[in-house]
Every structure is written in C-alpha cells, then in structure tokens.
C-alpha cells in the first residue's frame, strides 16, 4: 500500500514538473529541432505517466475498498470456494437455492480502518 502511494506521488510529481518544463521550453529562443525533440520526449513520458497514474489510482481505490470492508482480493474473487462467505437462500415453493456473498469478517468501515491501521509488521 505504501509502495503504491509512493508510485502515485512520484508519477504525479513528474507530470507536474514535465508539464511546466514543456510550457517553459517553448518560451525560450531555442532551435526548432531541439525544442521539438525535447518536447516530444517530455510529452511522450508524460503520456506514459498519465496511463500509469490512471491504473494505479484505480488500484489504490480497490485497496481502500477492500480495507473498508475487510476482505482480501482473493476472497472477493473466489468467494464461492469459501463456505464462510456464502449464505444459502431457498425460497419456499422454489426448486432452486440462491447463494449470496456475506463477509463474516466485516466489522463496519470505521472499525475495519482502525484494525488495518493498528496492524504492525
């Protein structure tokens, strides 16, 4: 989690700095070819960083969601394999049963956040 926040911070800082660099480099009286090469390099790496920030932002939101509801990604994806995450409903008069997701470890958002922040090691 800390590593992901570090990546997001670094790449967002790079985006800001490279945008300022491109804006300022166009104001200097440089050779057109030199400005074009440097500008293209800065813009192409900015586009790469934008893509990185987008998927890492979604990834960070997913982690925060999992923390708030005290569920791991593996448990969320494979919940049908874990009996403790299943609630079986059978309607009277119906021949089939419904299996729904239930998280037995969820203690509420605030308590889940406290538990996560209190973890050591």
How would you describe the overall organization of this protein?
The protein has 121 residues and is mainly alpha-helical. It has a domain of 70 residues. 63% of the residues lie in helices and 8% in strands. It is built from four helices and two strands; from the N terminus they run αααββα. The protein has a two-stranded antiparallel sheet with strand order 1-2. Strand 1 and strand 2 form a beta hairpin. The model has no long low-confidence stretch (mean pLDDT 85). Keywords: Membrane, Transmembrane, Transmembrane helix. This is Protein S-acyltransferase.
**Could you describe the largest sheet, including whether it forms a barrel?**
2 strands, antiparallel
| Helix/sheet category | mainly alpha
DSSP strand content: 5-15%
Question: What overall form do the CA principal axes indicate?
Answer: elongated
Residue share in helix: 55-70%
- The string of secondary-structure elements, in order, is HHHEEH
| Strand ordering within the main sheet | 1-2
Low-confidence stretches: none
How many H/I helices?
A: 4
- The overall strand count is 2
Gap between N and C termini: 13 Å
The whole-angstrom Rg is: 24 Å
Mean pLDDT: 85
Keywords: Membrane, Transmembrane, Transmembrane helix
Protein name: Protein S-acyltransferase
Transmembrane segments: 42-62
Organism: Dipteronia sinensis
Characteristic key phrases:
single chain, transmembrane, mainly alpha, 121 residues, Protein S-acyltransferase, 4 helices, 2 strands, 63% helix, membrane
């Amino acid at each position: 989690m800390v590593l992901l926040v570090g990546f997001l911070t670094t790449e967002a800082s790079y985006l800001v700095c490279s945008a300022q660099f491109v804006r300022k480099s166009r104001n200097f009286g440089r050779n057109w070819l030199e400005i074009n090469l440097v500008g293209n390099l800065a813009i192409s790496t900015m586009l790469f960083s934008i893509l990185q920030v987008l998927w890492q932002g979604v990834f960070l939101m997913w982690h925060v969601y999992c923390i708030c509801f005290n569920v791991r990604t593996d448990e969320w994806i494979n919940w049908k394999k874990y009996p403790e995450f299943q609630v079986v409903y059978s309607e009277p008069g119906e021949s089939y049963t419904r299996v729904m997701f239930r998280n037995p470890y969820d203690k509420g958002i605030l308590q889940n956040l406290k538990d996560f922040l209190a973890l050591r090691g």
